[in-house]
## 1
Amino acid sequence: MTNTPYGKDLLGPFVDAFRAEGLRIGFYYSLIDWHHPDFTVDPRHPQRNHPDAMKINEGRDIRRYAAFMREQVRELLTGFGRIDIMWFDFSYPQWKLGELVGKGHQDWESEKLVRLVRELAPDIIINNRLDLAGLQPDIVTPEQYMPRAWPKRDGGRVVWEACQTLSGSWGYHRDEDTWKSTEQLVQMLVGTVAIGGNLLMNVGPTARGTLDHRAISALSAYEEWMALHERSIVGCTQSDFTAPPDCRLTQNGDRLYIHLFNWPYKHLHFDALAGKVEYAQFLHDASEVTWLRPSANTLWANTQFPVAEDELTFVLPVRRPKVTVPVIEVKLKSGSAAGIQK
């Protein structure tokens, strides 16, 4: 700390500020340090195309670097109180460029590193980027990718977290212009929880340490939507019920949440839900949503239509509510909530 231009602890005040807001603490730790004298040139290193890259590596010892990392991690886990997550980033043993090879668990001495972390913080969460194929990670972290279903390993579901960006860049980029729309941001959150995941959304500060207006606008989109729809996300996970077209489902016990990505005309048909609903309402205004009862009507009369015995048809307003993603909260009858997945 005292060897930095600032001359003081930079991390402590951040930790204190987050704790003051009731937030738990997780540290991002870069396994890559191109400035360390023992970090060898590899296929991702800025000097990878240097004609004397192999000669530069002479005298460098990645084992000393691994030992240096362990001492840094020791400091992080002993100097700032309880730490809940160590988010290591990242391994790339499959990368090759001429005689240069990428780095993995042997370079980081990942087994020693994990043992140290577990010793100092037994209840901590460690992600899956230490290249430990034989060790089940606490959490799997797909990056800049939206899975279509709950990720699995060896046939079983994993605990997972999608790491995404508000724009196309992890750090602040003045001229970067692929910022996600409000609708896209909220749908990414809903879509992640609907298949059992958590969303880690990155925001990069400017060189002044502030957030620019685009980042503030993006974060405000979450703040505004979550203010009325938080309970369709927090504590929820994937449901066993099959979602109607253009919808995503989340569930928490006897509460089923239907997120409408596309607004249908007047009716929302939901299979296998008939007889299981006690009450339904929109979350944004708490107004009741009614549904049609099963009927044997036919389509031959222009004011009648059939509703199957196992089908529930919600009756919706013709006009879409002015909400980024409208949500119907369904209170399931006792014994009907078995559709939740863990």
## 2
Amino acid sequence: MEHRLILWLTIWGVSLLYPLAVRGSDSVELVLYNWANYMPPELLDAFQKETGVQVRELYYSSDESKQALLAETQGVGLDLIISAGASMREYVIPEWIDALQPELLPHLSNVDSHWMEKFGEVEGFGVPLLWGTIGIAYRSDKLPQPPSSWQDFFKPHHTLRQKIMVIDDSADAFGMALVALGYSMNSTDLAQVEAAGMLLEQQKPYVAGYAYPLIDENSELIKGHIVMAMMYNGDAVGLHELDPRVEFVAPAEGANLWVDYIGVVKKSQHKEEAHQFIDFLLRPENAAKLSESLHYASANKAAASKLSKEHLENPDIYPPKDVMDKVDTYKVISPEVLKLRNQMFRSIKR
């Protein structure tokens, strides 16, 4: 009930954004729907200084909460959204995002076509900014030996009760559990999905919470409240910079490869300015700033010359071939499998 109330209040607040922004002011304010801590403030400040357009962020905490708000509001009150391709492709048919206007994006050619085409349904609707993988972040000083596989994560050492954190997302939780069992993360075999659910159920006594760790100095990993966490590679790199005891491993069985896109919301009343912001991010120096600030790999080929050698050669940011050979993207799964997976995950989290 509390989550529904928070969602309702968020939706109610979003629906008021345009009237408040427009009344009595000629200035334009863009609203960007994004993960928290996923856009360097200095880039927002530089864009405002250059154009006079302010970008304000509204945060979501999971793909599920993001989709719930979009379904309730149809995107009214939002101008831009940053989302993984696996989620954004689901926004095309209900017309939550608008077709891009390439003539307003002179720097679009800077984007590597490999990433532009990675999620074909999104092409023409979203621009890829960053890409990465999911793996295991851990405290190297608190484990008898470092983890090397998803089996180490889902069947942890007996001393790790209440010391593990799992992302509160059924796609990631079930996807990686399936991989741990030797199955495809996109399996539609009901017996395999049920086996992954059993693995997650067996892991439950070791789970401190189904959530995402903080990525600042107050992180549960840095504080020692947890010892292992399912985590995106760039966030783990950022934590390692804050505390070298936090390490990251790409599990031996493989993992999810994601690509984050930015798109214009269909209901936006400021589409020209929204395109202007996207093009601003596509400039090589700005794409490099985004990549290095967030510790993720850039989808912008022109940014390479602006990125530091340390960043480009970090294998946790740009994984080597042996890791990339074992990654996969999330595919669209049947409603039947999705329903089963979501029901099982809700039951496990109780």
## 3
Amino acid sequence: MKLTINLATASYPIIIESALRYQIKTRLIQMGCNKIAIVTDATVWALYGELMRAELEDFEYELTVFSPGENAKSHENLMVLYRNWLDFDLSRKDMVIAFGGGVIGDLTGYAAVNFMRGVPFIQIPTTLLSQVDSSIGGKVAVNLPEGKNLIGTFYHPNEVWIDTDFLQSLPERVFKDGMAEVVKAGCIMDRNLYQLLIDSEYPLGSSMLYEIIERALIVKKHLVENDEKEMGVRKILNFGHTIGHALESYGAYSRWTHGEAVAMGMVWVTKSAEGNGLVQKGTTDDLKALLHKIGLPTESGVALEELMQWLVRDKKKTSRGIELSIMHQPGESFLHEVPKEDLYRFLSV
């Protein structure tokens, strides 16, 4: 299957196939690649390093392997990439490959946009979360101690290659991590996907998995094409992420995965919206039931006071307050701006 992201300035394909990993060499030759810088993490390389070496044997390539986890998205690791690429004599005619999950994609993309004012790169996402969300849309970033993704920009990959077979090697917790972003897609824009998730039996079969990946990608594609730089409607993709990012920062990026934090964030903001009369009674309970069925957490046990220092720095803040993405009902969402002085009260309900 092939989807295309069509933007005003560029377009790029998303290829979704099983066994796509065995086509890497052929596709790189078709793109005219010679020198390749590949970035991955130790977990992915331990699983697929031998395969990737075989696919790259006819190319001159440089390999950088980082420790897995959100803490890899650091300024220090950016410097590692820049120095490695300089030593490799990487140019803007060469290619960078992000081979891993969302962390590797974010870090590699942010390094690629800045190195020599932009080198092309390909996303090969290996986790469910990165396949349905972070590998497309062009958001790339690194973290600061003060918060997640505070240093970043928009830089789209040349292509995205999604091999669904990679998901077979995921630990259960990592797979569920990605399911949070699938649930989000259903909540904000695809009622049929939301219902499909309710009706499904877990663990999901391969055909069902393929369908939910496709549906989640179509949601993301539509919003990115209509609002590339997140100035308007694309902001609804942040459902659950304001609280979620604060929880990740509070937990030093190790207590919860991104998807777990987003799941709890979706419940928190829906409960607050329900308490403030913005959504129907029972919406929160229905969402919690779905997340429990999948095996995702819904309550953090963290007091709001503990999160406020990160919430007030959130990227979605405006001069007046913070814009929250809220699910009106499954498949429908809207943006609601909460004034700074009212944020604590709103989220306390």
